[in-house]
Amino acid sequence: MAAQLRVYSPTMDTDVEETQDPSINIRLGDLLPIIAYARRNNYLWLQDFLEDEVTVTSDLYDVIRSFYSAQRPSA
């Protein structure tokens, strides 16, 4: 017996921009190897998330900013 497919029309609720609130905490030490592996091997799913924002602590942000500015060649 063939499977029956149903087509649903969008409701009025879908007009609102859908965003996901952060709901999972993960250690940076667990996340970075996975991201690095996916980038090194050009996994396409990673591109789906390149525009996503992540929340970091202010001290990590300061370290990243300092590191970035130290790595930039001076003009």
Polypeptide structure, described:
The chain has 75 residues and is mostly helical. It has 3 helices and no strands. The longest helix has 14 residues, at 58-71. The protein starts with 27 loop residues before the first helix and ends with a helix. The model has no long low-confidence stretch (mean pLDDT 83).
Give the helix/strand layout.
Layout: H1 28-40, H2 44-47, H3 58-71
Supply Rg: 20 Å
Mean pLDDT: 83
End-to-end separation in angstroms reads 70 Å
| Unreliable sequence segments | none
How can the largest sheet be summarized?
none
Q: Could you estimate the helical fraction of the residues in percent? A: 40-55%
Characterize the quaternary organization of these chains: single chain
How many β strands by DSSP? 0
Structural class of the helices, strands and pairings?
mainly alpha
SSE topology string: HHH
**Number of H- or I-type helical stretches:** 3
Shape: elongated
Strand content: under 5%
Distinctive features:
mainly alpha; 75 residues
Provide a quick synopsis of the model.
With 75 residues, the protein is mostly helical. It contains three helices and no strands.
